[in-house]
Write a structure and sequence with these properties.
781 residues; alpha+beta; eight-stranded mixed beta sheet; 23 helices; 24 strands; 48% helix
Length: 781
């Protein structure tokens, strides 16, 4: 029986090559897209789940309360982790972690390389499952002058030499001994270090870590196996109260490590939104492919009617017939999955490039095998269920008499499937265009400063101390227009507090003020406009610390009138406002501009150089020459500021690229089905075409008649998709501080595009049928 069914399936596939190709290719493309997206989704959901006792690992959360609102942040006072170890017995291990790290010079045998160095306490290697291939995780970070590095970093630094016991010089200051080599970190972890130094060493160079009001580092804890997380949270909540200033009653909490990648610290959605979006896209594309199969199977039902009737008359039950057609569907799906896996193999590298990931196919991984089997079964059952029940519903007697009409039911269902297919495709296309427009809007936003033609150099060694002479020599060259020093990179100014007060300030109001250290050439280098007053000049010295410049946002908080000359109290200082700049973005553009205070200082981290755009190579050469002259022990790193800005939009651009490609594939799959359906309908109406031609109908008229019905379906799909797209895209856009208005033209453009694609698909098949010799058409059958 089963062998007979297999033979029937094989003959049907071979006899109807065109429809078999459409079914198999449509399913293959749909399943390939689904597998790729599910690989990424599985990778995102697996973050930090490889750690032993992962359910006992938590990130420490610093809840800040100000202006009648509460904000969760990861940055902690440096002494908090030690306090938690001392006061909370449920905490088995606890560690500081300098997540952003310092880019420091590592020197081994006069081979100098800059590397991102991160710091952690000895408990770090005890609580997280980052196995050491060399060294002892219990003691590797005990010595303040020790270092743990990854296999990749060890190979880069030492080549084939044994790293253990090697001495490297860090930042031309500390001699550090390598005490451990950790296995290269998996990509599904929130930790991404290559070089790890003890946090004790960080404390030696950064004394501000002792300040309870300074929040710089991340912290993690591992609870005892008998600890109750809720009871631990309650104990942690007030642990800061005895050490906080009167107006800084912050509370402490914990968030599961396994949720840190996907959710914000307060539990709200973050990256999980993208995961859900990709899951929806995967489902959409798989549904579209399955709908193709359903459509063509039910449309060609009459071709199998006699087979069904004969089997029923010979005693086959409806249940047996249903399983025959479901098995047929699963077999076709199995054939398609092989082509799908070939496509996945071919496109994984490009998919990784789009998403900046390192996804790999492991054919021996049981999760991958089960996933593929799941896709086969789900797709096979989903695609074959309705056709199986539909085909087995024929009346045996009527079928054997040659009466196979099924009334309007089958036609209506096919129309519904086509409408749903194109509705999903329209949703994806509209979403793609809106995401693209919002991303472009943010990229092209007026930042209030000019990021073009600026090179920045991280300050190392003696560069900060010799800034005056360096600036003079830099600007003496015609390739350099201006230069300045600053504490932060633009778009990354996160040094803030709510201590400043002024006359007339509401005591209950605690706006968060951001602080930026600048020199007199800051405005001219970044081309920031001054609203009123003046900026610092070359005669202003860093000892004039009572002068500040603020932005418009801050000025409006103080007064609706001119604020130049007014005084702000901060700590024990009276600061006089000498100028107000126009607002400019000093954090990423997805955040609203807040109040900013700029002041002169000697503590800088970056040199910024505006160069002549027509002489970039000479400018870089001159910067390298001058910086190397006054800082010979440290290689000079030059970076382009606009490239740094471009990196800020990588996630949005990746999402946009995925939407673009998969929307295109959804349209292709939909059109494959439409093409097959149009071919079948043209075949069914062959005699009608012949009669109409004999009676004088033109080719254009015939094409119009056969395309009109499909056009109605596609128009209806647009009408269904529009309100759904409008609702969800408005919700998505509401997450942005600065956003576009919903572009109505996108809806019209997508409708026109889909109509044209559908018309061309159906029109081509109609034209083929309409141009056939009417005599042959009338001889048909």
């Amino acid at each position: 029986m089963h062998l007979t069914n297999l033979k029937i399936t094989y003959r049907n596939l071979v006899r109807n090559k065109g429809y078999s190709f459409i079914n198999i290719s449509g399913l293959a493309i749909g399943m390939a897209c689904t597998i790729l997206l599910l690989m990424w989704v599985n990778h995102e959901l697996s973050y930090d789940k490889f750690h032993k006792d992962k359910d006992k690992l938590y990130k420490i959360v610093n809840w800040q309360h100000y202006n009648n609102s509460t904000h969760a942040m990861p940055n902690l006072p440096g002494r908090l982790v030690d306090l938690i170890k001392e006061k909370i017995p449920e905490v088995k291990y606890a560690t500081n972690y300098n997540a952003f790290g310092d880019r420091l010079l590592v020197n081994f045998e006069n081979k100098k390389q800059y590397h991102k160095i991160k710091y952690a306490d000895p408990d770090f290697l005890r609580m997280f499952s980052f196995p050491l291939v060399k060294g002892n995780s219990e003691t590797a970070l005990n010595d303040p002058y020790s270092m743990v590095l990854t296999e990749k970093a060890a190979k880069k630094l030492f080549g084939d030499k044994d790293p253990i016991g090697q001495i490297v010089k860090v930042n031309d200051k500390y001699n550090i001994k390598v005490t451990g080599v950790v296995k290269d970190l998996p990509s599904n972890s929130v930790f991404d270090f290559e070089f790890l130094l003890p946090f004790e060493l960080y404390k030696k160079d950064n004394l501000y870590w002792k300040n309870w009001g300074s929040n710089y580092h991340y912290g993690y804890v591992k609870l005892d196996e008998h600890a109750n997380p809720e009871q631990t949270r309650e104990k942690l909540r007030t642990i800061l109260q005895d050490h906080a200033e009167e107006d800084r009653k912050n509370t402490v909490g914990i968030s599961p490590l396994t949720k840190c990648h996907l959710y914000n610290l307060d539990g709200s959605d973050n990256r999980i939104k993208t995961v859900r979006l990709f899951l929806i896209i995967a489902l959409f594309i798989l549904l579209i492919a399955c709908f193709n199969f359903m459509n063509l199977s039910t449309a060609r039902a009459a071709k199998r009617a006699k087979e069904i009737g004969l089997k029923k008359s010979l005693g086959a039950s409806k249940f047996q017939l249903i399983w025959q057609f479901l098995g047929e569907s699963i077999l076709i799906t199995f054939i398609a999955i092989n082509f799908a896996l070939i496509m996945v193999r071919l496109f994984v590298p490009e998919f990784n490039n789009l998403l900046q990931q390192e996804l790999q196919i492991n054919y021996t991984d049981w999760e991958f095998i089960l996933g593929v089997l799941g896709v086969i079964v789900v797709t096979g059952l989903l695609a074959g269920a309705y056709p199986a029940f539909y085909l087995t519903s024929y009346n045996t007697i009527l079928v054997l008499k040659g009466i196979t009409q099924s009334g309007k039911k089958g036609n209506i269902f096919r129309k519904i499937l086509v409408v749903v297919q194109f509705s999903l495709s329209v949703l994806l296309l509209i979403g793609t265009l809106v995401v693209a427009l919002q991303t472009k809007f943010m990229q092209d936003m007026d930042l209030g400063l000019d990021k073009e033609d600026i090179i920045y150099v991280p300050l190392t060694g003696q560069l900060a101390e010799k800034r005056d002479v360096i600036k003079r020599e830099l600007t003496a060259d015609p390739s350099i227009e201006t230069a300045c020093f600053s504490s932060h990179l633009p778009m990354s100014v996160f040094s803030n507090g709510w201590g400043p007060t002024w006359e007339g300030k509401d005591p209950a109001s605690k706006p968060l003020i951001t602080f930026l250290r600048v020199d007199p050439d800051h405005l001219s280098t970044f081309k920031i406009e001054l609203n009123e007053g003046k900026f610092y000049n070359q005669q202003t010295t860093s000892t004039d610390s009572n002068c500040i410049v603020i932005n418009e946002k801050f000025a409006k908080l103080i007064s609706n009138e001119s604020v130049v000359g007014k005084t702000i109290q901060y700590g024990n200082q009276d600061l006089q406002i000498i100028g107000v700049t126009k607002d400019f973005h000093y954090t990423p553009v997805d955040r609203k501009i807040g109040p900013l205070m700029m002041y002169l200082d000697k503590n800088f981290n970056y040199l910024f150089v505006r160069h002549n755009p027509h002489n970039t190579s000479r400018a870089i050469e001159h910067i390298q020459k001058v910086c190397s002259k006054y800082n010979p022990e440290f290689p000079t790193e030059t970076n382009f500021l606009d490239a740094m800005y471009a990196k800020l939009f990588q996630d949005e651009e990746s999402t946009m690229a995925i939407l673009k490609y998969f929307s295109l594939l959804a349209i292709i799959i939909s059109c494959l089905g439409l093409f097959g359906l149009a071919s079948f309908m043209a075949e069914e109406r062959t005699k009608e075409i012949g009669v109409r031609k004999v009676l004088g109908a033109s080719v254009g008229k015939l094409v119009s008649i056969f395309s009109r019905e499909f056009t109605k379906w596609v128009l209806l799909s647009n009408l269904i998709a529009w309100p759904i797209a409008w609702y969800f895209l408005n919700k998505w856009l509401s997450n942005f501080a600065y956003r576009i208005d919903m572009p109505i033209w996108v809806f019209a453009a997508v409708a026109l595009l889909v109509l044209v694609i559908a018309f061309v698909t159906v029109g081509y098949q109609s034209w083929k049928s309409a141009t056939r010799n009417p005599i042959k058409s009338l001889k048909y059958e």
